[in-house]
Structure formats: structure tokens, C-alpha cells
Amino acid sequence: MVMHNPPHPGEVVRELCIEPLGLTVTEVADGLGVSRKTLSSLLNGRFGISPEMALRLSKAFGGSAESWMIQQAQYDLWQALQKTDVTKVKAFA
User: Fold this and answer.
1) How far is CA 93 from the centre of its chain?
2) Counting Cβ atoms within 10 Å, is residue 84 exposed (0-12), middle (13-18) or buried (19+)?
3) pTM given for the model
4) Are 86 and 72 in contact (CB under 8 A)?
5) DSSP characters for 54-74?
6) What's the CATH number where 34 sits?
7) Is residue 58 part of a domain?
8) SS3 of 32, please?
9) Does a structural domain hold residue 60?
10) What is the C-alpha to C-alpha distance for residues 4 and 24, in angstroms, rounded to an integer?
């Protein structure tokens, strides 16, 4: 089921994982083994969560890698629903 206007997963990482722990972006990037630029791009919604990042987030903050990927998939599907016109697509089933 698709959530109504889900937040970008980077927003979830920032608001539920980083800010409550009082961590800096640099500290988290170092801990995840990624560049500050990569993490900032995720947190600012320019990048999505890749399978590799999902594994890193799972180890660092908990939750399964699958749950991180599901958040990304829900966000991506919601975005696609907003801009994709399927009215002229022929149904075969």
C-alpha cells in the first residue's frame, strides 16, 4: 500500500536518527563510511537510499535493510503517481 505523500527517506534519517542523537552530518558520514557530500545529498532529498546505503543505515541506526528500501520504494512510487499519466495505457489483464 502506498502512503499518502510519504517523506523523502533522507528526511526520516535526519529527523528520526541523526537529530535525536545530537550527531553531526560529518560524524554520521564517517560512521557510515560515506562522504559528507553523499550523506548530505541523501538528507536533502537529492539522492535516494541505495541497497548499499540501506545496509549501512540498518547497521548504524537499526531497522532492517528491507525496511529502509521499502521507505524509498514508497517515496518513489508516490512521486511517480504524481507525474505519470496512465490513462492511455492499454490494460491486457
Assistant:
1) 32
2) exposed
3) 0.90
4) no
5) HHHHHHHH-S-HHHHHHHHHH
6) 1.10.260.40
7) yes
8) helix
9) yes
10) 30
Rounded Cα gap, residues 88 and 61, in angstroms: 43
Torsion of CA 22, 28, 30, 32, to 10 degrees: 150
Residue-wise pLDDT tens for the chain (93 aa)?
556 899 999 999 999 999 999 999 999 999 999 999 999 999 999 999 999 999 999 999 999 999 999 999 999 999 999 999 999 999 999
Which of 88, 64, 55, 78 lies closest to 6 in space, CA to CA? 78
Residue 40's CB is within 10 A of a number of other CB atoms, namely 16
Q: Rounded to whole angstroms, how far apart are CA atoms 24 and 18?
A: 7
Count how many domains the chain has.
1
d(CA 82, CA 20) in angstroms, rounded, equals: 32
